[in-house]
Amino acid sequence: MIVERLIILDYENEVANEFSFSQNANIITSDRTTIGKSSLIKSLYYALGFEIKQFPHGWNFNTMRFRVDILIKGSAYSIIRDNTLFYVSDSDGVLSLKEFSEWLEEKLSINMKLKLKKSKTNELSSVYATEILTSFYLDQDKSWNGYIFKNSSDSLGRYSNIPGDILEYVLGISNQGILEKENEKSKNQKKVKQIKSKIEVLNSLQEEYVKNTKMIDTSPYDLKKLKESFNNYLNQLSRISSEISVKKKEIFAKKTKQDLNSQDNVELEKIMTVNKKTYKDVELECIHCHSKLTLEQSLTRLKLKNNLLEIQNMLDFNNKENEKLQNEIEELQNEIAELDSKYSTLSKRKMEIKEILNLKEYIDLESKRLANEEFLKTIDKLSDDRKDLEVLIKTLAKEIRELKEDQKDRKSNISKRFYEILSDINLRLGSTKLSEIEFFNFSEVKGSGMDNNKTLLALYLTYIRLISEYGVYTIPFGIDSFVKNEIDKETVKITFKEVEKYFLSIPSQTFFVTISENLQYLSSLDKYNVIRLKYPILDKENYQKLLSMVRTSNQ
Questions:
Q1: Higher pLDDT, 407 or 545
Q2: How far is residue 157 CA from its own chain's centroid?
Q3: What is the pLDDT of residues 92-122, one digit of tens each?
Q4: CB proximity list for 54: less than 8 A, separation 6 or greater
Q5: pLDDT at 487 over 50
Q6: Nearest by Cα to 163 from 456, 440, 413, 418
Q7: Cys bridge to 538: 15, 146, 162, 530, which one at CB 3.0-4.6 A?
């Protein structure tokens, strides 16, 4: 992935700006602090789906709309983000964060899955965009607190092994493929056991059937058992009827919620029409009570400001919720249909037993249901299924062995490269901590001040370099400023040389944030795209020009 441009538009304050980027190294800088460097890089990754919880003071992302233009495998896409809603250029609809994450995975040709903390099995859970981006972005406020990658976002806390599982996937040494095949193998082994048990039972029944075939023709019904079955059917029918009633009530409640959303949208669309026609004094009718409302009263009732983007966002949100409610209603209707079918079947069986009980006829149910030929056909079919599963299990076992061998070799090569990079960096940093750190050990880096930051920086640079060389997918790397304490110039010089050698030299796209006085420590500054920010980074002059760029097709 390559980021070509970022547009930020604050529709409450009516200010905006756009930023263009190089496909290689981009340095975001300013002469002073608090100009907006962190706000810019945070906004970039936020627009890509990263859940950033802490923006700088005064940066109200809730009233902003972001557009990022990207290239993935040579194809151009644009992404617009407004709070929890996403609009992508190759789709007409609005996407939730989950749907956008699935879109992003599809474009990157990946399928990352992680184990949840609460999971007691080896089953893996699909991820959000934050997990996809975590290894590529270092946040100034979250990434320098002693843990590598672990606390860059609050959303990572729901997984059991962070950042290990994420980095394993990114580096192509994940257990995910092995676990999926082992789960498949385990499920098929259980199926084989179940089939074997069925075959044993059927063989036993078949032998008993052959032995007692003549006796079955003269055996009467067990009237006591038939009466028990009849009562059991009655109970089941009563329970199903109650379930149907409950689900119909649920459908009614969801349809009511849909109607309310739709009614609100009617009023919102009227407000947008009024807004666009610039009528100053127009009466609107309240959908719920039918009273006449001024435009201002209607906006107050809906808790909105007279802002087209905010109104459209609420329209889209209501439509998205109605879509979800409709899916739930259809699911309930399907469940009711299944229950109706089951009710009909049980009712038919109940009537059949009732007729038998009334007539007290003596018939042979077993001779019709358990004919010897059917026994043999069923046993043969189960035997074939068992053989097919056993062949599949052997194939899976072979694939698992091969995956483990490949994983071991790849991990060994990456581990060797890890120590090579880290040792080279430590030649100049001279940290005793670094010599004690092992590959894929993500324990807390204890300490304080710049010494701690140097250790963390060395580890981040090492893992980022590994990702750039071995990663299974590519996203722009971003490092927010890591210099947060007063330090001597010699230390700054050393750390910036390491950043230049192992980060800015990466062949893929990078973003680095620093104050302009530190640029003197970069020897190849003329090769980088330097973005010099001035306060404020958003202005009113660009608002009208960029407004059309962040609108969607239905706005």
A1: 545
A2: 14
A3: 889 999 999 999 999 999 999 888 887 666 6
A4: 139, 141, 142
A5: yes
A6: 440
A7: 15
Q: Which amino acid is at 355?
A: E
Query: 117 near 158, Cβ under 8 Å?
Result: yes
Which helix (H) or strand (E) element contains residue 77?
A: strand 75-82
Taking residues 41-62, what's their average pLDDT?
A: 93
Domain ranges for the chain: 2-182+397-550, 220-363
Residue with tokens 């270092």: 138
Which has the closest alpha carbon to 94: 338, 346, 308, 323?
323
pLDDT in tens, 140-175: 888 888 889 888 777 788 888 889 999 999 998 877
Q: What percent of the chain has pLDDT over 90?
A: 41
Contacts of 6 (CB under 8 A, 6+ apart): 18, 19, 21, 40, 43, 44, 47, 66, 67, 68, 69
Concatenated DSSP letters of 270-296: HHHHHHHHT-SS-EEE-TTT--EEEHH
Long-range contacts of 31-35 (CB under 8 A, 24+ apart): 31/515, 31/516, 31/517, 32/515, 32/535, 33/515, 34/535, 35/533, 35/534, 35/535, 35/537
